[in-house]
Amino acid sequence: MVSLALSRHMFRDVSYLPCLTKLTVSESNVRCMSAVPGPKPEGPKTEPNSQNTDDRKPLIPDRYRFKYPDLLPLPKMEWRNAIREKLERRDQMARRSQIDIPEFYVGSVLAVYQNNRHAADKKQKFVGICTQRDGYGLRANFVLRNVIDHIGMEIRYLLYDPTIEKIEVLRLEKRLDENLLYLKDAPPEHSTFPLDMEPEFIAEDEPVPINPVQVKLKPKPWRMKWEKWGMKGIAPDSFFPGQLKGKIPLVKPWDEMDLMKQYRQTIPEEEQQEIYAELYTELHQQDASRKRTRRKDSKKKK
Questions:
Q1: Tell me, which GO biological process terms does this entry list (predicted)?
Q2: More confident call, 106 vs 58
Q3: 3-class state of residue 193 by DSSP
Q4: Rounded to two decimals, what is the model's pTM?
């Protein structure tokens, strides 16, 4: 009872309250100031660099996937093997160090020098237009077509064939289609090239020209039903007015919007960057040596 009365008397006295209030406020102030971090010292201000890392160009040029499609593996996942693909790329680069494999596309005119034991001088040269490019890795191949003595001739070459001595680009250009198989049913003047054709040089910094020519086919019979393939390089007047009506096209236009189908049929861009980054140093050295050779040849002809 005495302690209870004493406590009541103490809190009844107003002189004790300021002390308690001051003590409480001072402790709370100390705790709050310790919890709040102080201002960090400002370091030296750096001016914005004109060459920002986000604006830098990627190390691997985008044109590599069009320039070196043979270095990419087969897009079928069930047939892929990482170890085999690396070994194939090593063999491909070893072959490229021995022979200059230039940049060419479907529609370019090439000259291929090949060893042939059945020839008189053990060598063979063939000039023609590239009508098809197919295959991946060491199985990459291309087809050349030429009309010699009114006879159409086509030869399929393996790109990494050890019997090939030289591949020379006489005319570098592209066409509107991925293959030119319809030249078999076209007039021979579209596939005739002289065997002594001189190379046509273009500037190194210029893009590859696209030839928009449209070929008019010969009258039927044709080797294939070209009206169903939707070829851009075939002249529309090659078909009759009612020939295209009611025909079910083999190449469906909605396939261009099918993202999953395109993903299954191609190598993803991220994986392409990894492959070309692995081979970038060797490819860059080969490109530099090829440019020096072209400059020397152009100076000699001048």
A1: translation
A2: 106
A3: coil
A4: 0.73
